[in-house]
Design brief:
Elements: H1 2-43, H2 47-81, E1 159-163, E2 168-170, E3 173-180, E4 185-194, E5 202-203, E6 212-221, E7 228-238, E8 247-253
Helix pairs in contact: 1-2
Length: 255
């Protein structure tokens, strides 16, 4: 472990200038992306495009914070740790554990046993009457089959909710499965609307920034919603802020 620490400190000592240059270029690039996303969010009137721009803003500022933290760590190592530590002395000591000497175990002593034999045993043959074994016929038990809601049909397999199926009855924690992909993928979101023809939509959780193929898109607690008919809607947004037709699935919540 000490050898690894010495190696890392030696790398920082040799290439500290290049680390600063790389961090500075990364900060400038992410600040530029932040200003571009902020301008795009201010100039659009579409909600989805605003959410996409806000997502890019947050990602750019997260990168800036990460690079600033890395720069601070390198500064501490350069001006406080390296002057006080001699890397040549960081040698990992190897110790050999002392081996326990074997302890002799006394061997148990067996006492002699004498058996009295009165004479040779006499064997008497007794007739064996075969007994017919009953034959059992296993009873056939019918297993009830629980109907499974049919999977929802998807016009676009890249924007598709496969589970829950159409008109599925939901209760408790529900896993929403399917696919959310795009050649220029940026993020996807899942929303729910109340009633047969929802007047408004509410997001389930946060937007997700990685594509999913035939996997779990999101989980939510249906017990937090009143019982009734709902629609689930999946929207996949590309890097330009555009999106194909969302996929909707009708479900019924009964808790």
């Amino acid at each position: 472990m000490l050898d690894i620490i010495a190696f890392m400190l030696d790398l920082v000592d040799r290439y500290v200038i290049w680390v600063y240059v790389a961090c500075l270029l990364g900060i400038i690039l992410n600040l530029y992306r932040y200003t571009q996303a902020r301008a795009a969010r201010a100039n659009t009137i579409f909600t989805v495009e605003r959410e996409a721009a806000a997502h890019r803003e947050g990602r750019a500022m997260s990168n800036v914070g990460l690079l600033l933290g890395l720069t601070a760590v390198v500064l501490v190592l350069q001006f406080y740790v390296l002057p006080a530590v001699d890397t040549s002395e960081l040698v990992q000591a190897t110790t050999t554990p002392a081996q326990d000497e074997p302890t002799a175990t006394p061997r148990p002593t067996l006492a002699p046993t004498s058996a009295a034999v009165d004479g040779p045993p006499t064997l008497t043959r007794q007739p064996v009457t075969p007994t017919a074994e009953p034959t059992f016929t296993p009873a056939v038990t019918a297993t009830p089959v629980t109907p499974t809601p049919p999977p929802s049909s998807c016009a676009d397999p890249n924007t598709c909710i496969t589970s829950p199926g159409a008109s599925a009855v939901l209760s408790g924690m529900v896993a929403i499965r399917g696919s959310a992909q795009h050649p220029n993928f940026q993020f996807y979101k899942i929303e729910y609307g109340l009633g047969e023809d929802p007047a408004g939509w509410n997001s389930i959780g946060e937007t997700v920034g990685h594509p999913v193929e035939n996997g779990t898109l999101m989980t939510f607690d249906s017990a937090a919603l009143p019982n009734g008919v709902y629609w689930l809607r999946l929207t996949v947004v590309d890097i330009t802020g555009n999106f194909p037709n969302p996929h909707r699935v009708r479900v019924v919540i009964e808790n």
